[in-house]
Structure prediction request, 289 residues.
Amino acid sequence: MIDIRHNILLNYFSEYLITMSLRTMTELNKLVSKLHPVFVPLGLSGVQLHQIRNKKPDIYRHRHAAWERMQLLEFTKPVYQPKNRTTEDLWQDCPRQKELELKDRTVYKANELEMLYAAQMKDLFERASMIGIFHVNPIKYRAQRVAWQNARRHGFELKKYNNRVCREALQGTKWEQSVLFLSEMGRKESQFAFYLGPPDQVDPGQLLAYDKKVPEFILLAAIIGNHVLDRSGLTNAATSLYPRKIESLHSELSTILQAPAQKLSNLLSRNQQKLSENLQQYIKDQQKD
Prediction:
């Protein structure tokens, strides 16, 4: 099929050269009309050889091309071979999978610098006795600097990490589910206030005081030991638990644990006491008689 097209194109091209050579050798247009060439050059007819500039082309009812030109267009038109003849395997060329992989690398995976921040964040979580998690709306650098200074005054270390760093640092730890849920709720960055002092000096009231000091911050939760507390739980801990110190809590717990045993002892000795009272009353009655 390709050879046939090649031969036809060669024949038409040779005839075209011959006609054009004859046209250049003639004088005026009369000699061209007497020769009656078999092949007319593209866009040239035997009657009209010059363009009429005052005639506008009709784009709705245009003239068809000459037969020879139509044959050339048919033989020279491009041929496309579809990669998938049916839609059965069309899903393999879908770019959505590549888009998801690119999004996973750029949005969810931490880069080399963020890996260093993740190591720092994991170390702070392991050493901190109390951690405050804040949501922060967009603020200027001056307000962020003031918040950092107030954190130092209240005994906290204020750090800012994005979600990729949080995901990389806390993956596989005991804080993974809770902290990732809180950090994913807000913007791409979350603020953490770390208290690095000894555990016996933890004061939740300091965290609440710091939250009141910085109006741009919104306290979402706090981590004390192995417990995650919301704002109401942190307030309860600051007003009821930690002001009484650990010794008073131990004595109160001991009293609560001893109450059932004391009640059981009273119930067991109640019958003996009642029998003793009845015998004493019987003796008194006998002495009167």
